[in-house]
Hints:
Layout (H helix, E strand, L loop, with lengths): L3 E12 L2 E12 L3 E6 L5 H8 L7 E6 L3 E4 L11 H6 L9 H14 L15 H13 L5 E5 L7 H18 L2 E5 L3 H7 L2 E6 L2 E7 L12 H10 L9
Parallel strand pairs: 3-7, 3-8, 5-6, 6-7
Antiparallel strand pairs: 1-2, 1-4, 8-9
The structure holds adenosine-5'-triphosphate.
Protein name: Sulfonate transport system ATP-binding protein
Keywords: ATP-binding, Cell membrane, Hydrolase, Membrane, Nucleotide-binding, Translocase, Transport
EC number: 3.6.3.-
Amino acid sequence: MAEPVTTVSGLTKRFGDRAVLNGVDLSIERGEFVALLGRSGSGKSTLLRVLAGLDTEIEGKSEVDGTVSVAFQQPRLLPWRKVWRNIVLGLRRGGENRSRDRALAEQALSEVQLAEHADAWPLTLSGGEAQRVSLARALVREPDLLLLDEPFGALDALTRLAMHRLVEDLWRTHRPAVLLVTHDVDEALVLADRILVLGDGHIVARHLLDHPRPRAAADHADVRRRVLADLGVTESAPA
Ligand SMILES: Nc1ncnc2c1ncn2[C@@H]1O[C@H](COP(=O)(O)OP(=O)(O)OP(=O)(O)O)[C@@H](O)[C@H]1O
């Protein structure tokens, strides 16, 4: 039987007297890739912050069984530390072990095709490279749940496509459960096993994506139409 890595039930999050999340129920299975869509301000980032344990002032239940890593839209690298030191920064272990840390960082960097950048300074990286370092930093902890908050949103279209392939490869290799927040319906259609739509403070729609990978967004044209309708976006009819 499928085993959940995270279980959220009746989750309510208020800012003052306004409930941004109002009774969210969701469960993500181990190794499952889930995309979370919703209009701007619907509470996607708020939900991720709760799942990441960054916001604990909640009502209801939010449980994660295992390690969580987060990658944000901005890579958030420390400019005064070399790339490899950024990667191992979040590994909290007893005692210093520089050579083992270095080996872990090099392995993670080679997986994102940046092996030769271990000693670079973050400010010398391109946007796409910095985002790959951020992914390596998230993965080096071998997370059970990887939370991605619009990690490709600031990248140009070509770099974004390359990142989709990379994330799919990394997911296949490491098999974390992934919750990807995105505004890009096609990105969700290509990458995810399941799409959740957030609206009015809770999950208003769930769509299964079962087309084999690698996929194109057009493989799920039916789901695309339904998700756009869930989001209240009207698509112009094809000519
Ligand atoms: N610390 C805070 N204090 C008060 N209100 C907040 C706080 N954080 C978020 N909000 C409000 O909660 C709502 C949801 O914000 P959130 O960032 O989760 O939305 P989102 O779906 O991720 O939006 P976007 O797609 O634009 O990034 C917004 O109206 C926002 O103003």
